[in-house]
Amino acid sequence: MLCINFDVDFDVEAPTEATRRKERLLNTLKREVKIIMEESVNRKAINAKSTYVTSLCAAVEQCLLDGLKRRLLGLFGGRSTYALLHNIAKFCPEAATVLTLTIRAHDDEIVFV
């Protein structure tokens, strides 16, 4: 007589939608970092306007936006990364520099359009 014993742990909970979304965002971010690292090795330099940089920035932004969406009005009164950056810039000089560069780039973009 053949007896097969399957050990099944029924106490393990299924991942929630938030957990699955977080894992998906982190996997996307990891993939984009890996791609940009591979490109930097192959090309020795990557242009700031390259699609690799744009994809990485989009992945980072999605992670930030996911965190902001889980809070009512995102702690800062707005649900955008720009609002977050604007509020952090008051206390962090590096964020103020990034905000200044972002505003300057946006203004340059408007001039060229």
Number of strands: 0
Q: Could you give the order of the helices and strands?
A: HHHH
This entry's quaternary arrangement is: single chain
Mean pLDDT across all amino acids? 78
Number of helices: 4
Largest sheet, strands/sense/barrel: none
Strand content: under 5%
Give the CA-based shape: flat
Distance between the termini: 79 Å
Q: Uncertain segments of ≥5 residues (pLDDT<50)?
A: none
Radius of gyration: 21 Å
* Overall SS class: mainly alpha
Structural domain count: 2
Helical proportion, percent range: 55-70%
Your description of this structure?
The chain has 113 residues and is mainly alpha-helical. The chain folds into two domains: 18-70; 72-113, no CATH class. It is built from four helices and no strands. The protein has helices spanning 17-43, 51-69, 81-88, 93-112. Helix 1 packs antiparallel against helix 2 (51-69) and helix 3 crosses helix 4 (93-112). The model has no long low-confidence stretch (mean pLDDT 78). Pfam families: RUN. This is Bm10889. Residues 47-113 form the RUN domain.
Features:
2 domains; 113 residues; mainly alpha
Short description:
The chain has 113 residues and is mostly helical.
SSE topology:
Blueprint: H1 17-43, H2 51-69, H3 81-88, H4 93-112
